[in-house]
Amino acid sequence: MHKLEKKLVIIGGGPAGLAAAKTAFDKGITDILILERDFELGGILPQCIHNGFGLHHFKEELTGPEYAQRFINDVAERAIEIKLNTMVLDVKENKKVYAVNKTEGFFEIQAAAVILAMGCRERTAGAIGIPGTRPAGVITAGTAQRYTNIEGYLPGKEVVILGSGDIGLIMARRLKLEGANVKAVCELLPYTGGLTRNVVQCLEDYDIPLLLNHTVTGIKGNGRLKAVEISEVDKNLKPIPDTAKIIKADTLLLSVGLIPENELSKKANVVLDQRTGGPIVNEGRETNIPGIFACGNVLHVHDLVDWVTEEAEIAASWAVKYIKKDFLKETAAIKVKAGQNVSYVIPQKIELQADDRKKIPLYMRVSQPLTAVNINLFADGEKLYSFSEPFAKPGEMISIPLAQKTLAQHENLQEISVEIVEKEGE
Amino acid sequence: MANKYDVIIIGGGISGCAVAWKLAHYNLKILLVEKEADVATGTTKANTAIIHAGYNADPDKLKGRLNVKGNEQIKEISKKLNVPFREIGSLVVGLQNDNLKVIDQLYAKGKENKVKNMKIVDRKWLRENEPNISPKAVKALWAPTAGIITPWEFALAMAQNAVANGAEVKLETAVLDIITDSDQVKGVKTNQGDFYADYVVNAAGLYADEIAQLVGIEKIKITPRKGEYYIYDQAKDFAVNHVIFPVPTPISKGIVVTPTVENNLLIGPTSEKVASKQDLATTRSGLLEVISGAKKLYPDLDLKDTIRVFAGLRAADETEDFVIEAAPHLKGFINVAGIQSPGLSSATAIADFTVEIMEAQGLKLSEKKEVIETRPEPVRFYEMTNQARASLISKNKDYGQIICRCETVSYQEIIDAIHGPVGARTVNAVKRRTRAGAGRCQGGFCGPRVVEIIAHELGIDPTEVKQEEANSNILEYKIKELLGKKVIENA
């Protein structure tokens, strides 16, 4: 077994891994290795051939492959080492990484720091336990997207979509453009899971019915899918028996959530947050294991790749500081708490000191959608300040800055908390 | 004659494969025909995957006689065929308020059936050996000879070993009729042509009654009985150390909680008579019954990590016993029907018993001089040590290319599965042989790669690649195909 040593090993060559590599390189760590399990870089972006990427980061509208290509070029210009078709099998707490590929076989890399950037996977039919048979034609929306946009095949032509996550919305339009009959998008909740712009541009513009408070209660057909049974649900999200309807379909796409892929993280004893499914991190995106960082969808599921890029830049900057031994840790971390109507906040704690920090962006999601909201920050229960937003919905991540000087003004601070509530008097 | 055999076996489930495996030890020309594209696609692929100890069935039933015998044979046979079998033992767990007398009755029945090493264990023993079990568990029957196995691999391994010993397996070959000459069976008519033999074994599982009816046998009546299940992702986070049964009621063995050989956790089954032999649908009420049953034994079990639900059909005969006998009026026609639980546990004993019947009918049995007793162990990259992986890849680089990330299955393992004996032709056949697609993403990532590899290796178009049955194509069209006309009109 051959052994390598690298300053920084990045697991995953998607948008998070690529941006992290670029940033680390530019900040002075050049001994980098990106390990990518697929045959090309870019993660899920190469199959996202629609536009809408880069509005925040590049201030222009790009397709997924275009967005990825900019970072692929950046990495190529810097001659950062990449191993494709390479599967990481194990990561240890001591930052030994074990990987395998066809050309080099099985090998070990001792890293000074590791950035976890493995992305996420889709929730499956089995995970949500839809009653019925197990025919061909029931697949996740992302897999259908790969078949359509990379492999060049369509799963079918009479389509029902369960879940209104972004990939489901995008695939509704994509299959409609391919001539398929997209009969309905069913969403269990009273609101959509994806971005508002995707609801408008992918469903409304194409007259694809969106059925809120509906779910699939039966899968029918042996061999290939023949039909699905859909039902309305009550306030407790339980199907209402009399409302069941059969829709003839040869394809059921599932867009029912994404799960950060942290099987490797667990092997390195990284502690996960039950709510995000990703590691618990400080503001440098460092996990509980010193020198192991995480960014992108492995940390928490993002809706915009632009935020993935920003997060990767944060993780890489701090990984560089870690390698250069350029920061101090507070003796006691400040807890960051998700308060009223907030499902989670990243980071979960603040504990790093460095001279060049001005603002710490807090990423969060609202639990229940609201219009006209105040986002209130508290330091040990004392209100710091508020931000107003016209609306907040769970499908759209919110980023608000926390000024470092605010922290400095509060001695022995234990906890920062955030709440998202309706504006008073409106 | 090329299409003339000594014995034809109808059905590639666990029983048909076991009979083929056994008969291939003798100087006989054997043909096994299976209507689906793989062996083990019926009841054999969807059951509780348990090798029972043998205390359940009455001693006067075939079930009672053959279970213990099959259980005793399994250790040696599984080793020879390189089929992972784990003798983890079973517990029938009595909770407070259960009828605990039943546990003693099962113990007594087990004694009669000559089940070895059973013990009645108490609350303290249960605490120590099953730490997650319900605090209400007070008493249990411990049968250390029970175990777990992968049923489809067991069937496949027997089919592969039979092939290694000269038997033929024809897949996608459906029997349409039985050829007879007065009171002697002469062969089978299939969708792939006629095949001749003086001995025909009907091991058609759920369809055994329909095959029997072709020769006028009406006494076999298979009523499918459905069982629904949940499978959890890798079970290491929640220890279950034995096959755990509740105290049975007169109608059911109840909801079982068991680890699988691959370290998943399996809970189920329900037990419900259904009208159709194709009714493999799980139901809301059935799944709820499974959960509430499992929760009685393991209150802390939560459903967060389930990766699949499925249903299987038991091929139960009206008599509620195995029906293994020669047809009274048609020489050479042997029924192996009604093989419900403990059919998997009894498989090799069923094969022995069937061969004895055939011998009594006049089949000449002379052992081959050089029988291949073992099946080469397939590469299982996911369970190898890093050292073993390194050395494997140094011999063949294609084991270094991982296709299924969840279960760590390499490209070469998939190639081996496709080109090995009784090769895989479908996505599910690849999954059964390699575990590619059996993990937490359920083929979300590796599915497209597996479809591509199957298409390439079999020389077919990806739109022809099937999940399992004849009409189960994964992909229906090429892109732009649905637009064909419109694209031209708009040009």
CATH class division of the largest domain in chain A: Alpha Beta
Q: Structural class of chain A, please?
A: alpha/beta
Helix content class of chain B: 25-40%
CATH class of the largest domain in chain B: Alpha Beta
* Total count of strands of chain A: 28
Number of strands of chain B: 24
Task: Sum up the overall morphology of chain A in one term.
Answer: globular
The end-to-end span of chain B amounts to 60 Å
* CATH architecture verdict of the largest domain in chain A: 3-Layer(bba) Sandwich
Average predicted confidence as pLDDT of chain A: 95
Question: What's the name of the CATH homologous superfamily of the largest domain in chain A?
Answer: FAD/NAD(P)-binding domain
Task: Based on Cα principal axes, name the global outline of chain B.
Answer: globular
Task: Give me the secondary-structure topology.
The complex is a heterodimer of chains A (426) and B (491).
Chain A lengths: L1 E10 L3 H12 L5 E4 L15 E3 L8 E2 H14 L3 E3 L3 E5 L4 E6 L3 E12 L3 E3 L2 H4 L9 E3 H11 L1 E2 L3 E5 L3 H12 L3 E7 L8 H8 L6 E3 L1 E7 L6 E6 L12 E4 L2 E4 L3 E3 L2 H5 L24 E3 L10 H19 L4 E11 L3 E5 L2 E5 L5 E8 L3 E10 L2 E11 L5 E6 H6 L5 E8 L4
Helix pairs in contact in A: 1-2, 1-8, 4-5, 5-6
Chain B lengths: L6 E4 L3 H10 L6 E4 L16 E2 L10 H19 L4 E2 L3 E6 L5 H12 L6 E4 H7 L7 E7 L3 E3 L1 H14 L3 E3 L4 E7 L2 E7 L2 E4 L2 E4 L5 H6 L8 E11 L10 E4 L9 E4 L5 E4 L3 E2 L10 H14 L8 E12 L5 E4 L6 E5 L5 H18 L25 H10 L6 E3 L4 E2 H9 L7 H8 L12 H12 L18 E2 L5 H7 L1
Parallel strand pairs in B: 1-2, 1-13, 2-9, 5-15, 13-21
Antiparallel strand pairs in B: 3-8, 4-8, 5-7, 6-7, 10-11, 11-12, 14-17, 14-18, 14-19, 16-17, 20-21, 22-23
Helix pairs in contact in B: 1-5, 1-8, 2-8, 10-11, 10-12
GO molecular function, one term (chain A): oxidoreductase activity
Keywords (chain A): Oxidoreductase
Protein name (chain A): Thioredoxin reductase
